[in-house]
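Extended Data, record NB-ARC domain-containing protein
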Amino acid sequence: MAAAREELLAATVADALGLSDHTSRMPLDAVCAWVAERPVLLVLDSCEHLVPQCRHLIERMLAACPGLRVLTTSREALGVAGETVLTVPPLETATDAVTLFAQRAEAVGAPVRDDAQQRLAARLCARLEGVPLALELAAAQLRHHGLAETTARARSGLDLPHAPPHRPGRTRRRDTRGTCWTPSAASATAFGLALGLELLAASWAERGAPRHAALAYGAGAQHWEIVGHHQRGTPEVAPLRKRGQAAARSRLGTTEYAALFERALRADRDHVVAWATTPDPAPHL
């Protein structure tokens, strides 16, 4: 399986470069031969899903291609010699996050116009912790819900106790009062995405799109697994989830709903987020 993934990765890079090699060479050999003759910036996105394969591909290409520079995005370092890691935090909620949200809101036909709406947008961005994909999901809701309603829904899911200081190597701790949330880069991103997907699912359920809703609930559950399912149980957000899931289940039937939910729960995390952020996505993955 690892070898097959490595060959597929090399073939994907070859396709992106527009190579059509008709010899018996392996795809990586063909890629190296082409790149070695010119300066190239290779960008690989979401490498955390194929860390060993990406590491091997990059090492082979760097050794064979003196003019090559590589830029990757990943939730973990690849461990390549000479690698420089730049940690990208969430956006500053008072500035960049609001700017991104306003741009996306205008793109869906719901511009943020006056000071009151600016304050609502800033509050929403703070609640979503400046996570760009979560902001995009929230902005998509403005097609069907006003800014005030979207902000209220987000607020209901984020009324959480203050997190204790982070301890290296630990993402959660338990004490006699229950489970507390401890933030990390991964959990902060997952938290915003989980909430955004859940709001999206509820909206689809209300609009009579039960298949979309079931998939979005399953996608959200992936991210709640990272954060901790205890965060899903706040009394304000639980009724919204219960109504949305009940509506989708009653339209689809328990069996089909469960199958769709499970499919999204087990699907590639980036794939389901990309699906959810696509305008008018298909009702399947």
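Summary. The chain has two domains: 2-72, 96-163+177-276.
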